[in-house]
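ugh ok fine here u go
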Amino acid sequence: MAEKMMDAISMLEQDHRKVEGLFKEFEGKGDRAAKAKMDLARAISEELEVHTKLENEIFYPAAREVAEEMVAEAYEEHHVVDGILEEIGAMPEPNEQFDAKMLVLKEQIEHHVEEEEKEMFPKVKRGLGKERMDQLGEQMMQRKQALMRETRAA
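structure:
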């Protein structure tokens, strides 16, 4: 089934809501839910990996035209998140450190999302216009479908 075309920002915001939901689900798991926590951490990691690639490869290069400083900061925030994800991925099972890293990851993502949605996205939307947002959305949807196929195959 083909997904409904949406503009770039709507697509990124949809990803943000999905990851927020996964974090909420993770927080609801108790200390004895090791497998469920690992599965959710993996799902969060996969979602963030695809989302980050879409932003880094397609959205940020376009956004840089109107929000250069914000884009530079966003790239750095992605770098920090990548490091945390790498550390979490290297852990064989949940423990106190795992939960702490997941909390720090959640806080980093919340900060990043807030800056994007309140500052960057409105500026980019005004600066690039609806037609360009739609074009970027189409390009991002095609890339996302390819990335999801790659992720499932791995």
